[in-house]
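Fill-in record for Cytochrome C.
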Amino acid sequence: MGRVKLSGLLVFIFFLTSGSPIWAKPSSCEDCHLKVTPGIVKDFHRSKMSETLTCASCHGREHQSANDVDKAKLPSIETCQRCHPKQAKQYMSGKHFLGWIALKAMPTTHLQPEAFIKGRKGCGGCHSLGATAEAKRQPDYPKYAMDCQNCHTRHAFSKAEAQEPEACMTCHMGFDHPQWEMWSSSKHGVIYRLDRLMGRAIDERRGPRCQTCHMPDGDHRVMTAWGFLGLRLPEKDKEWLSWRLTILKAFRVLDPQGKPTDRLEVIKAGKVARLTEEEWQAEREKMVRTCQRCHNSAFVKEQLHQADMMLREADRLFAQAIEIVASLRKEGIIKSEDNNPYPDLLRFYETPYKIEQLLYMMFMDYRMKTFQGAFHMNPDYTTWYGYAKMKKTLVEIKELAQKMRHQAQEKI
């Protein structure tokens, strides 16, 4: 019996015993992989792609034995692009493709353990996607970085799987972006999950899932009006603009005099804020059209406006806290290595001062939950996990600043 025929027989026997009814093109690779990684073979033969592709289609033909495993190519967005040019183009124009760029732009990424970033056990676990071909050639780029496979998990690459909200859950949950928790406990999420439990088909479920709003008609771009940082320029509301300028100084996007720094280019490259009125409005109008598929226009505009106003209120509290910390730096109570009176919030938790740690929590946790909860129609998240904690932390920062001044005075 020839090598290919034997491989085909092994696959047939494997799927008979595993309960899978799917037949696929045989591949000589499966002679070994049915023994060493049978789960991968099973997953691949669940995929429609197994009807036309073989392992070599994505991994190349150089790897032929256990002695040359390092020659197996790892698929990338360029691999998927050969068959899915439209989806790849959409994806590469959106924010997900910029995940690695955004992570590398943070000033303290290089201070983190290798396992945390390159090993994908921390921030690198979600942000190891996207980036340019040049970035991927750098030694600090994760070997097992993911693009399409983040949602269409290897080796099944299931469209049906990627259409369910759980596909988004691994990255969009917890601390700074608990979209899963917000959506799943909102009325939108509850209705969707109840319909699914009742066995209704995906196009018959009433509530929207993540993909309904953020990937309308299968658009892989995935962008929002406010961006991750919840910032836009210019701003017609002068009071809100003043608070936003304070926040931008604390992100070191603006210097203490309000002039742009080199970090502005990083913000642009990562698309984590909206820097023209037209850019913000274009993304908002897309979301309005999506919401109007289920709701009337007056309701949609009112709900989005009220969510905007929760972000405004969060910025008011946040800017107050930033100025308190900045005043301590100006007074020399908090030592500043670069003589900049504003803290660098994009350093995240890398600060020895408790008051700056509190400010970091206010930014990355409570402010995020305040406005993200509002846009995800979850008033409880907006209130108790966001807005209330912002108020509580502002009180703590005021009290701690007073205590630090008192201690500094005693030392004189």
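KEY FINDING: Residues 1-24 have pLDDT under 50 and may be disordered.
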